[in-house]
Amino acid sequence: MNNKNQQSVVLRDMVEADIENYVRWFTTETEWCALDTPWEPLEHGSEEEERKNWTEYFMQASPIPPDAPRWKYEIEANGVHVGWVSQYRDLEFLPNPHQFPAVGIDLAAPEARGKGIGTAALSLFLDKLREQGFHCFYLETWSGNGSMLRVAEKLGFHEVFRKPACRSVGGRMFDAVTFLLRDL
Ligand SMILES: CC(C)(COP(=O)(O)OP(=O)(O)OC[C@H]1O[C@@H](n2cnc3c(N)ncnc32)[C@H](O)[C@@H]1OP(=O)(O)O)[C@@H](O)C(=O)NCCC(=O)NCCS
Questions:
Q1: 3-state helix, strand, coil in the chain (%, to 5)
Q2: pLDDT (tens digit per residue) in 23-41
Q3: Buried-most residue among 75, 83, 95, 99 (CB within 10 A)?
């Protein structure tokens, strides 16, 4: 059990049954993207195209050897697939000469947000990266994403870069913000 409201959160590899969730999250239930990068509309195909693409993705991606490092995990809360965490290396505004992982998260299922699941999932993901020997992590977001800013703060990230007023959302300008977490 993790965090608020006794949510049981696990990270796992993709399974075939996740495909239909991705189809929905990339065609109709797309609010997560409007919260994540609202200045960048989600580009997606028809339901049929998304099903084909996600099926191909699943077939190519699995099975992952048990001890291979993962770039992405599916998030399951109380047994329900609700989103994903992922890592990347190319930061938008800072060089990353040591190739520290930058972590990203999307709870695409709307009912999953605001229950402590994001904090718990990112915390689990950081622990998995620590097991691979990483002890510094980046996280990029924007100043209008109150819950992401708070989750970053709760996990011990601190701000290392801010580009003012570079994100236009609903007629207002917001900042891009980069956080760093450095284990002691
Ligand atoms: C951002 C996201 C990962 C956060 O996960 P979550 O499970 O909803 O967050 P949690 O419930 O763990 O924690 C949210 C915290 O932010 C606080 N919060 C929520 N909205 C807030 C706001 N507008 N301003 C400030 N704090 C806010 C909550 O009170 C909570 O803090 P608390 O535990 O101290 O009360 C999730 O909401 C999500 O996936 N959103 C859509 C996609 C997205 O924005 N991804 C991030 C891209 S950088």
A1: 35, 30, 35
A2: 999 999 999 999 999 999 9
A3: 75
Inside any domain, residue 158: no
Task: Please report, for the domain that includes residue 115, its CATH number.
Answer: 3.40.630.30
Q: What single-letter amino acid sits at 10?
A: V
- Best probe residue, ligand 1, of 8, 150, 155 (max atoms within 8 Å of C-beta): 150
**Domain limits at 19?**
4-133
Structurally, the chain folds into a number of domains equal to 1
Predicted TM-score of the model (pTM): 0.96
Asked if residue 152 has its Cβ within 6 Å of ligand 1, the reply is no
Do the domain assignments include residue 40?
Answer: yes
Q: CA-CA distance, 35 to 145, in Å (whole number)?
A: 7
Which atom of ligand 1 is nearest to 150's Cα? 16
The 10s digit of each residue's pLDDT in 38-60 is 999 999 999 999 999 999 999 99
- Quick one: pLDDT band at residue 3, thresholds 50, 70, 90? very low
Q: How far is CA 46 from the centre of its chain?
A: 23
Q: Is 165 exposed, middle or buried (0-12, 13-18, 19+ CB in 10 A)?
A: exposed
Whether 147 is in a domain gets the answer: no
